[in-house]
Amino acid sequence: MAVGDTRDDVNEGATEGTWGPPLLALAPALLIRIMSDRSGPWQAAAWTVWGLAAALTAAGWATAVRGGIRRSQGWATCLLLHVGLAVQALSLAS
């Protein structure tokens, strides 16, 4: 750390909280898929929510690349998110 640098090295890495918002963003896409008739507007809404989750995931990876993933909980939540994104994308595409 350089003189005058005020960063806190403890909080620099990606944690399970980094991957939480994209997981929460996937919930509406899941509900749309379960509760709707897969018509055009609902399908578009589900893809839009999925895109938001993917964008939040990219932002999380920016944090992970800069500071690393420090604990196993962060890795587990990251894995859960990526599995959820893949399952949702396959489900929406079919």
Provide tags for this entry.
single chain, 94 residues, mainly alpha, 74% helix, 0% strand
Secondary-structure topology with pairs:
Blueprint (H helix, E strand, L loop, with lengths): L15 H20 L4 H28 L4 H22 L1
Helix pairs in contact: 1-2, 1-3, 2-3
Distance between the termini: 50 Å
Unreliable stretches, pLDDT < 50, 5 or more residues? Answer: none
From the spread of the alpha carbons, the general shape counts as elongated
Radius of gyration: 16 Å
Q: Which percent range describes the beta-strand content?
A: under 5%
Estimate percent helicity.
over 70%
Largest sheet features:
none
Total number of helices: 3
Q: What is the count of β-strands?
A: 0
Write down the secondary-structure element order: HHH
Backbone structural class: mainly alpha
Mean pLDDT, as a whole number?
Answer: 80
Offer a quick outline of the entry.
The chain is mainly alpha-helical. The chain contains three helices and no strands.
Report on this structure.
- The radius of gyration is 16 Å and the shape is elongated.
- The longest helix has 28 residues, at 40-67.
- Helix 1 (16-35) packs parallel to helix 3 (72-93).
- It contains three helices and no strands.
- The protein has helices spanning 16-35, 40-67, 72-93.
- The chain is mainly α.
- 74% of the residues lie in helices and 0% in strands.
